[in-house]
Amino acid sequence: MTVKFSMFAAEADMRDHKFVVKVLTGSVEEIARTAINWGYDGIEFMPNPSRVPDPVTFEKALNKSGAILTVVNSGRIWAHGLALLHKDPAIQKEAIAAFQRMLDFAGYFKARVGIGGARGPGIEGMPKTEMVKKAEVVLRDLAKYAEKTGAIIMLEPSESQYTRLFNTTKECLDVAKKIKSPNFSIMLDTHQLWGAEKSIEEGIRSAEGKAQHIHLFEPSRWPPGVLPEKEVLDWKNIARILKEEGFDGSASVVIAPEGDPEPVARKSVAYLRKIFNQ
């Protein structure tokens, strides 16, 4: 198993918005260069939904450092107050248009786009079965759009404290099976595996080998392998299960929530390469 490791990253205006994890920020050239210098293969990029970069210019900035774009993270759709499923049709329409721009951008790189918080918390008061059906319509339409662009959508399971939609790996995989698109798949997140699944192993195996990407961080939001005395997750076991499931994707790491992020980032990726890429 050879995993490409990337850092969560965004342009400097990301600092104006609250997000659940801390990400590397700066110009595209700066974040790409920093990721490479700290030992990563590239970045998981979080575009501003109203100002998605020009892919040609973005590619040139990546090429200067040799960084790759592993995933386009759509999380800023949520951070900007939008949602792919929303009671206000205007807000939902704006979110869908923003996601389509991200698909256009990712398609240039034949990259993947994750759907995590972008789907929104759900519609208050609406029965879950009805809400899921409405969400499936939106996701099916986005999958058709993705097929035109060449991008791949990955639905990320998320805990019930954030959303009522698709909380488990199995729920996400069931949606992917219904949509039946080569451009619609799923991804994993260790915080969700810890917080929402019966067990981390069951959550990973529920993906049936279809997961293409995984977010790696502790429930405390610290990167793996840097605070062994305080770690809750068994990272060697997680790596073992992913190997057994034939995982052949990429992984992203957040930066330290406090202190100097560089030594933490370097230590984490060295640790991850050791346990994943043996």
Q: Top keywords for this entry?
A:
single chain; 278 residues; alpha/beta; TIM Barrel; eight-stranded parallel barrel; 10 helices; 9 strands; globular
Explain what the structure shows.
- The structure is a single chain.
- This protein is an alpha/beta fold and 278 residues long.
- It has one domain: Divalent-metal-dependent TIM barrel enzymes (TIM Barrel).
- Helix content is 42%, strand content 15%.
- Strands 1-3-4-5-6-7-8-9 form an eight-stranded parallel barrel, surrounded by six helices.
- It is globular and about 45 Å long.
- The termini are close together.
- The model has no long low-confidence stretch (mean pLDDT 95).
In CATH terms, the superfamily is Divalent-metal-dependent TIM barrel enzymes
Helix share, percent: 40-55%
List the secondary-structure elements in sequence, H or E: EEHEHEHHEHEHEHHEHEH
Number of domains: 1
CATH architecture: Alpha-Beta Barrel
Low-confidence stretches: none
CATH fold title: TIM Barrel
How much beta, percentage-wise?
A: 15-25%
* Name of the top-level CATH class: Alpha Beta
Mean pLDDT across residues: 95
**What is the global morphology?**
globular
Q: Helical stretch count?
A: 10
**Topology, number of strands:** 9
Strand order of the largest sheet: 1-3-4-5-6-7-8-9
Strand-pairing-aware structural class: alpha/beta
